[in-house]
Amino acid sequence: MPGCKSFPTARPSRVLFALCFAGTSAGAVQSVVVPVLPDIAEQLHVSASTASWAVTAGLLGAVVMVPVFGRLADLRGGRGGLLWSLALLTLGSVLSALAPSLALLLVGRTLQGAAGAVFPLTITVLLREVTGGRLPSAMALVGATLGVGGGLGPVLSGLLGQYVADYRAVFVLCTAIGALSMLCVALLVPRRPVVHTTGGVDLAGATLLATGLVLVMLPLSQGSNWGWASPTVLGLLVSGVTVVWLFVRMERSRSEPLVSIALMRHRPIMVLNLLSAAVGAVMFLVLLGVNQLVRTSPDAAGYGFGVTSLTAAVVYLLPISAASLVAGLVGGRLVARFGGRATLAIAGVLGTGGFTSLALAHDRAYEVITAGVAVGVMLSLAYAATPTLLTRFAPASQTGMANSANALTRWIGGAAASSFVATVLASYTPAGGAPQETAIVVIFAVGALVSVTVASLARLGLPGHEPDTVGEFQESEPSVTHG
Q1: Is the pTM of this model over 0.70?
Q2: Whole-angstrom Cα distance, residue 294 to residue 48?
Q3: Which residue from 153, 164, 267, 473 lies 20 to 30 Å from 89 (Cα-Cα)?
Q4: Which H or E run includes 436?
């Protein structure tokens, strides 16, 4: 917990290890529940669509907590916030493991949504603990943990499911991972003096923003179940957009806003947020698309491999995580040598090639694995470049806010992609049959289009000159720092 004692000093390598472990753990917790949704439905005696609320609850918890933790990071430093977010993640895992009903499970999953705040908090800590030439590589490696953890979640869930039939075992594993992450941070990340002692969290703004984001995320995550043209979905979307608009109007008049509207309107920040939404969508498109492809029986649908969940996780999804990890080790060097803008463009090209290959050639295992690896490398390079660019385009006093807003857009992109995949599969599935191959092609084709968007935004949307130091652009644009 935040009150735990820690060493007064720490080696950067130890700090980096703790932050990477925390980031990987958070990424895994976010995605580990997806493979056990059928087990949750069966064991809690609910429908599949009702069980999908276990994913929605985590998304809603994240959108509520991430902005608040981001503001606290700018005010108080990142270590305490990181410990608290990991504590909430662990508590949510305990509740989910013990839940005798879906209602209590959803409470636990909502608390697990604190995992969404872990990554921006790790970046805040990293900026205080690592300096000089090591910072780009360190940020790239921590950034890569998002892709690594997101890919490892389904793999761990699949492996565990082969030995333990009860879905609760997954949340027991999450509890152990969360507790170990807290211990690493408490022992290896030193306590530092508070960055800013003045100011506070805009609670009214936090409430309004949370309400608006929840109203937007609900239809994005449940639209495939409720119907995209249904009055419920349309009403929630309109209400959510209206509340967010009211939040923006209110924040403009705040001297100490929860989210600086001027910063969010700064063109590089806007583009980076759009890029993160696209990359978040890519992650779900590749994981869900590949999993559906390889698990579909060729006897029933005329395509696919008909493999078990364990084989899908280990043979097809694990290489994506492994590629993300390896790419993360070199991503920092690419950013340092060619710049974040060029690295993002390279990532977009790799993703375009990978998804195009998946759409056109997916009859053999090596074709799917190779293309999946290309997308895994794309994810890692994008995650490596984005935090580096954010810290250069945002003022030092608002890096927590900037990274948290960026994390939120990633969640929104992922939720939209998840619902899109569900909608496409439902649209191309005949009654009593398996999804048609057209559904798989559509999913991967959209992945290619999103990847093209990443490359285009990186080349055309970001400034040609990247600042060499944190906040260089803001020195000539003081309005950005004033919110």
Answers
A1: yes
A2: 21
A3: 164
A4: none
